[in-house]
Amino acid sequence: MAAKTDLDLSDPVSIKGTREFDAPVALVFAAFTDAKHLSQWWGPNGFTTTTSHFDFRPGGTWRFVMHGPDGRDYENRVTFDEIEVNKRIAYRHGGGDDVEPVTFAQTVTFEDIGGGRTRIVWHGVFPNAQMRDFVIKEYGADKGLQETTARLAGYVAAMARS
C-alpha cells in the first residue's frame, strides 16, 4: 500500500493525487456516498465537516461547512456532474457569493487493483494557474489533499474491520 498520497503538480492548472487503500472499491466508494461517512474523514487534519444538504446524484448538490482548527468556517458547495458507481465521481466545486472563492472541476476515479485493494486518483482542474496557486498558498490544498486522503484511508480501514 502506498503510505502516502502521491502528488502531481506538474500541470499548472491542476492538482492530482493518487493513493492506494487496503479496502475494496465498493467500501471506499461508499465512504463518498453518505454524508455521515463524509463527516468522519473529509478535510485536512484538525478539520470537521458539517453537512446541511447532500443529494448524491448527477445535478445534485452537497452543501457543507469545513470547520478549521483555527475556528474559521469554510462554506462549500459541490455540484455532482457524473456518478458511476464504484468507478467515478465528477463534480464542480464552488460558485456563488456565499461560499469560499474557489472554483474547480474535480474527478475522482476508483480502481479495483485486486486483493481487496483500491486506487483512487483525485484530479482537480482550476480555471487558471493563478487560481490553482491561490488554493495552494491560501488553503494549503496540496498538503490538505494528502491529509484528507490519509484520513479516508484510516476511515475505510476501520469500516473494513467492522
What does this structure look like?
- With 162 residues, the protein is α+β, with helices and mostly antiparallel strands.
- It has one domain (6-160): START domain (Alpha-D-Glucose-1,6-Bisphosphate, Chain A, domain 4, 2-Layer Sandwich), CATH 3.30.530.20.
- The chain contains four helices and eight strands, in the order ββααββββββαα.
- The protein has helices spanning 25-30, 35-41, 129-139, 141-161, and strands spanning 6-8, 14-21, 48-54, 61-67, 73-84, 88-93, 104-114, 117-125.
- An eight-stranded antiparallel beta sheet has the order 1-2-8-7-6-5-4-3.
- The chain is globular, with a radius of gyration of 15 Å.
- It comes from Undibacter mobilis.
DSSP strand content: 35-45%
Q: Which structural class best describes the helix and strand composition?
A: alpha+beta
Number of E-state strands:
8
> Nearest-angstrom radius of gyration?
15 Å
Question: What is the CATH C level class, in words?
Answer: Alpha Beta
Identify the quaternary structure here: single chain
Q: State the low-pLDDT regions, or none.
A: none
* SSE ordering: EEHHEEEEEEHH
Please name the fourth-level CATH homologous superfamily.
START domain
Give the termini separation.
Answer: 20 Å
| Number of distinct helices | 4
Q: What is the architecture at the second tier of CATH? A: 2-Layer Sandwich
Mean pLDDT reading: 93
Q: How many discrete structural domains? A: 1
Spatial ordering of strands, largest sheet: 1-2-8-7-6-5-4-3
